[in-house]
Amino acid sequence: MKKMTKGQWEAKISEAMIKFEKEFMGRGPTETVTYIIRDVI
Fold it and tell me: What is the count of structural domains for the chain?
């Protein structure tokens, strides 16, 4: 299995947040930005 880069992790988290908000709240953002800095997201 290939190791994911920091940028790939940030993209996956952003996608998950968009999906969560659309599924559970009925609406949400079309774009998000995620930063991982040390142990903070």
Answer: 1
Q: Give the list of residues 6+ apart from residue 35 with CB closer than 8 angstroms, or none.
A: 10, 41
Q: CA-to-CA distance for 39 and 41, rounded, in angstroms?
A: 7
Full DSSP string of the chain: -PPPPHHHHHHHHHHHHHHHHHHHHS---S------BTTB-
Phi-psi sector, 26: left (phi>0), alpha (psi -120 to 50), beta: left
Given a cut of 70, the residues of the chain with pLDDT beneath it are none
Domain containing residue 9 = 1-41
